[in-house]
Design goal:
166 residues; alpha+beta; five-stranded mixed sheet; 6 helices; 17% strand
Length: 166
């Protein structure tokens, strides 16, 4: 199946937000912090993140009903539990987060078009935005997110690990 080269403009139906709010938020939070921790020191330099030490962050995917709460500490990212408010909350639709990941849109454009909102400590928001802007992410296309391509990529990674003796 060939996917379009650009993300269509979409918002998940209200049902997803209502359903997503009722689901446990820990599994998607663990997926996010695992990805962030794998990127630490490789794609994501530790030094610029020092002001985040001890800070609570939240990523809110408004149309999916997800709020991923996590913190940054000496040993990396970890889930954040409890009712303490986040120091910084970043909110957007699923489509807008995907557009950021695919580098189709930048955070400034989304922010000024009111499609990306930041609440909390302004300095943390600027730090996160500037750090993300400085990262050289691998190019992500919609086709690379298709299940067949994702599985093929995973097979290459696993066979490479086996061949290297890891």
């Amino acid at each position: 199946m060939k996917l379009p080269t650009q993300l269509p403009n979409f918002t998940l139906p209200e049902f997803f937000a209502r359903f997503g709010q009722r689901l446990p938020q820990l599994p998607p939070t663990l997926a996010l912090i695992t990805a962030l921790n794998l990127a630490l020191g490789r794609l994501l330099p530790r030094e610029p993140l020092e002001p985040l030490l001890g800070k609570r962050l939240a990523i809110r995917v408004s149309d999916a009903g997800l709020t991923l709460r996590f913190a940054y500490g000496e040993r990396g990212f970890r889930p954040s539990f409890g009712s303490v408010a986040a120091d910084l909350t970043i909110t957007a639709r699923t489509r807008d987060f995907l557009a950021l990941l695919a580098r189709e849109e930048d955070a400034d454009t989304l922010f000024f078009n009111r499609r990306l909102q930041m609440q909390g400590e302004t300095e943390l928001g600027l730090l996160v935005k500037n750090t993300l802007d400085a990262i050289e992410l691998p190019h992500v296309t919609l086709n690379s997110l298709a299940p067949a391509q994702a599985l093929q990529h995973l097979r290459r990674i696993l066979s490479g690990a086996r061949n290297s003796g890891a």
